[in-house]
């Protein structure tokens, strides 16, 4: 037996382990439930078995008692029958008379309480004598009742029995019947036979009730109900008198036996009801059931409880897994230690960070392996601080060492570990590697430093002002130097430029001038350079403004102001010099034209002389009429006037004057220039054709300077033609003035001078505008360079090109443009001071 038990145990253990935890739980719950139910079934079957046993015993007992009663009653009946047969024989032998019979009957009945009466009936049914038993009182009043006896004419039980006894000549028991008092009785009739002759019968009548009362043994009656039933199973007498209504209750155990030796259809019945183990009435059974139900109920309760627990446990496991996954996934190292500083836990990130394994760290006391040897003292101090809870909440920076000996910077945060009872059990430390962050921070600060160094080192002032609040967000050193720390300088720089929006919003002003403007567009608007003069500094600034989104998202205006005072001064000086050059150039031109001018003046002067000489001789000869004299004088005056006009015009041309732009008509300029050039052209025998388009817009220009350019171009053309000694048909120049529109310049007026000369030589074309470059022996070479600077100062353009006939250059064309927009704008604003921003203009 000892060998298979461990084997079975092992087998069970293997099976148990192969089950899933959920099934194990189910089995663990169902096991007790099943055993309780089995226990209950066992109890029930035990009860059932015992009860069956008892019922069997009871059946046996009832049967025995019934048989006992049957024997008792049967014995009595046989004794009585025999005594009666003896008595009958005796009476027949002695031929007894009725007195004798009564005496014998009295003696007979005295000892037999079961009898009601004894009667002697002869063969013809006449009653010879009758004796009522003493103990039997058929009527309570004591009045004599008639016994029921055989009557020939009547068919009743005594008569039937009488006939049977007569015919059989042997004792016959009657069937039961009811006597006159209503009591159930039966009779025994013993025939009186004298030498085979039937002489009558002796009748004894038994009271069934008395029979039951006296001959059912007392112990039997105590145990069971004994009753006598007739053929219809009607209860005639019983040991227990039942009330009529109750008789219907069926007994559990019934045992029947015929009433021997009467055999007259009467039945002796024994009945038993009681079994000591009635399941339904058994308290013990119900207690067991109740306890089992209670146990089952509690088991079910436990099961539910366990289920709830396991659900909670499942949730807990999930939570734990979640936290573990979270903890493992994060790059933050975690380390727990108890109150003495013993490491109780480290997470994966911590191991990865330090390079030590879990086993190498857990359980260690300080100094920890990840402390750099040169910093043990400091780390001890930090740990003490940590253990005493005095670590700063912002964390502390420490230097840790990896297993391979390399060190890294880390930031450590410490929080207390609290157990479920609310007691502190240790400290939890989280550690982040900040080497990279520190490197980035250092880089950032270095780059910031570089940035500020550059900005601070700038000669230009840089200032950023928030548009809404009007507060300075950034200024550099130059700004501070010039304007100090407040926003006034910024406002001066911004406000000084024409057309700038007053951007500093009043705190109470809800109408933000920039509200609703998309920031993107504003920040992308280009930095239009403006020149601003700051009174207090006596400086000119080139100011570039730009809207940008500040680091906190606010709209801000950045101004970069460069000091251009020196540059402007230089420009002013250059302009002054240019002016001088222009005047000089005009003087030079006039010098060159001196012989032409002299020739030109010579004509009127000669005419005047001739007129004067003619008049003098005619006046001397007195041959002149007054009218002729007046006409001659008028002619003289006209010639003098013409000479004066030439001189006046030349004077105007060479007069030194401030260059001044003013609304001017192209036609007028052209006329003046052609008039001056005419002197030279006539001398050189060159014709000029002029075409000026109708309705040209007014231009904004200095007419003398434009005239100078035109004169220069015409003179060059004439010189080229003259020097080439061209034939007459090629000695002419064309001057055209037309409006034009080009994609790059927009609307312009174009002046062009075309000659039929030899053209510009290839080697000359590249150096055309070079100062002091000339191909002419007496040429100064400053004409064209001056022309171009004049045109460009008017925002125009100048170009030269050769005209070809095949490969042959057949002339050249000099053209310059003057923009029309300027004209339009100036006409609209009409204030010359605002026209150009340069102060020198
Ligand atoms: P200058 O007339 O004193 O030589 P410019 O600057 O007026 O100085 O001219 C420079 C040179 O350009 C001239 O020497 C000449 O060679 C060339 N040039 C100017 N105009 C013409 C022209 N219409 N045809 C040919 N060559 C020209």
From TrEMBL:
One of its GO terms (molecular function) is phosphorelay sensor kinase activity. The chain crosses the membrane at residues 27-50, 284-303. Residues 596-822 form the Histidine kinase domain. PROSITE patterns: HIS_KIN, PAC, PAS. Keywords: ATP-binding, Kinase, Membrane, Nucleotide-binding, Phosphoprotein, Transferase, Transmembrane, Transmembrane helix, Two-component regulatory system. It catalyses: ATP + protein L-histidine = ADP + protein N-phospho-L-histidine. InterPro entries: HATPase_C_sf, HATPase_dom, His_kinase_dom, HisK_dim/P_dom, HisK_dim/P_sf, PAC, PAS, PAS-assoc_C. It holds the Pfam family HATPase_c. Residues 394-446 form the PAC domain. Residues 318-390 form the PAS domain. This is histidine kinase. It comes from Rubrivivax rivuli.
């Amino acid at each position: 037996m000892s060998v298979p038990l461990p084997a079975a145990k092992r087998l069970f253990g293997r099976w148990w382990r192969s089950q899933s935890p959920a099934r194990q739980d189910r089995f663990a719950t169902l096991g007790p439930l099943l055993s309780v139910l089995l226990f209950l079934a066992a109890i029930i079957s035990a009860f059932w078995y015992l009860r069956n046993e008892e019922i069997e015993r009871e059946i046996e007992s009832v049967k025995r008692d019934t048989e006992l009663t049957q024997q008792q009653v049967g014995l009595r009946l046989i004794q009585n029958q025999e005594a009666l047969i003896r008595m009958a024989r005796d009476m027949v032998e002695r031929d007894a008379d009725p007195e004798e019979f009564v005496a014998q009957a009295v003696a007979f009945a005295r000892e037999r309480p079961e009898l009601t009466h004894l009667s002697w009936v002869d063969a013809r049914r006449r009653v010879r004598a009758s004796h009522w038993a003493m103990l039997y009182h058929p009527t309570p009043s004591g009045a004599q009742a008639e016994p029921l006896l055989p009557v020939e004419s009547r068919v009743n039980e005594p008569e039937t029995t009488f006939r049977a006894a007569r015919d059989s000549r042997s004792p016959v028991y009657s069937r039961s019947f009811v006597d006159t008092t209503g009591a159930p009785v039966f009779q025994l009739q013993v025939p009186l036979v004298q030498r085979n002759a039937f002489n009558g019968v002796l009748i004894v009548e038994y009271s069934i009730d008395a029979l039951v009362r006296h001959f059912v043994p007392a112990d039997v009656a105590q145990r069971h109900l004994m009753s006598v039933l007739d053929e219809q199973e009607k209860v005639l007498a019983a040991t227990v008198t039942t009330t009529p209504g109750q008789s219907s209750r069926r007994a559990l155990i019934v045992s029947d036996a015929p009433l021997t030796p009467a055999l007259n259809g009467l039945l002796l019945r024994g009945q038993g009801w009681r079994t000591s183990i009635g399941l339904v009435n058994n308290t013990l059974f119900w207690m067991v059931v109740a306890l089992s139900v209670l146990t089952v109920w509690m088991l079910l309760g436990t099961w539910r409880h366990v289920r709830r627990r396991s659900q909670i446990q499942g949730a807990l496991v999930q939570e734990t897994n979640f936290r573990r996954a979270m903890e493992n996934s994060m790059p933050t190292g975690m380390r727990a230690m108890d109150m003495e500083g013993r490491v109780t836990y480290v997470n994966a990130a911590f191991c990865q960070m330090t390079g030590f394994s879990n086993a190498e760290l857990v359980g260690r006391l300080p100094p920890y392996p990840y402390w750099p040897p040169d910093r043990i003292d400091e780390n001890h101090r930090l740990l003490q601080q940590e253990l005493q809870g005095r670590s700063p909440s912002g964390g502390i920076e420490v230097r840790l060492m990896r297993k391979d000996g390399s060190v890294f910077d880390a930031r450590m945060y410490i929080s207390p570990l609290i157990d479920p009872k609310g007691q502190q059990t240790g400290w939890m430390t989280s550690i982040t590697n900040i080497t990279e962050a520190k490197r980035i921070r250092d880089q950032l600060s270095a780059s910031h430093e570089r940035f500020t160094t550059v900005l601070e080192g700038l000669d230009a002032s840089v200032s950023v002002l928030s548009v809404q609040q009007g507060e300075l967000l950034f200024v550099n050193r130059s700004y501070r130097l010039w304007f100090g720390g407040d926003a006034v300088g910024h406002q001066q720089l911004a406000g000084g430029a024409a057309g700038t929006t007053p951007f500093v919003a009043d705190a109470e002003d809800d109408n933000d001038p920039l509200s609703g403007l998309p920031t993107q567009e504003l920040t992308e608007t280009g930095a239009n350079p403006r020149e601003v003069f700051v009174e207090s500094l006596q400086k000119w600034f080139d100011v570039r403004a730009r809207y940008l989104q500040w680091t906190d998202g606010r709209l801000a205006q950045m101004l970069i102001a460069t000091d251009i005072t020196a540059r402007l001064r230089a420009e002013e000086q250059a302009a002054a010099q240019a002016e001088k050059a222009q005047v000089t150039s005009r003087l030079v031109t006039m010098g060159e034209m001196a012989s032409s001018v002299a020739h030109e003046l010579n004509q009127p002067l000669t005419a005047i002389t001739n007129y004067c000489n003619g008049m003098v001789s005619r006046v001397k000869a007195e041959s002149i009429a007054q009218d002729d004299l007046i006409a001659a004088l008028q002619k003289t005056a006209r010639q003098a006037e013409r000479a004066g006009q030439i001189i006046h015009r030349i004077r105007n041309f060479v007069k030194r004057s401030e260059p001044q732009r003013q609304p001017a008509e192209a036609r007028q300029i052209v006329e003046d220039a052609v008039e001056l050039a005419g002197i030279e052209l006539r001398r050189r025998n060159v014709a000029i054709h002029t075409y000026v388009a109708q309705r040209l817009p007014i231009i904004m220009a200095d007419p003398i300077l434009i005239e100078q350019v035109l004169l220069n171009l015409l003179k060059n053309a004439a010189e080229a033609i003259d020097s080439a000694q061209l034939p007459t048909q090629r000695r002419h120049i064309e001057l055209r003035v037309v409006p034009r529109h080009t994609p790059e310049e927009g609307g312009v007026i174009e002046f062009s001078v075309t000659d039929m000369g030899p053209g510009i030589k290839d080697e000359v074309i590249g150096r055309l505008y070079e100062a002091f470059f000339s191909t002419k022996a007496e040429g100064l070479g400053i004409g064209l360079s001056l022309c171009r600077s004049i045109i460009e100062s008017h925002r125009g353009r100048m170009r030269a090109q050769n005209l070809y006939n095949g490969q042959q250059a057949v002339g050249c064309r000099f053209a310059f443009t003057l923009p029309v927009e300027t004209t339009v704008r100036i006409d609209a604003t009409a204030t010359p001071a605002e026209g150009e921003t340069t102060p020198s203009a």
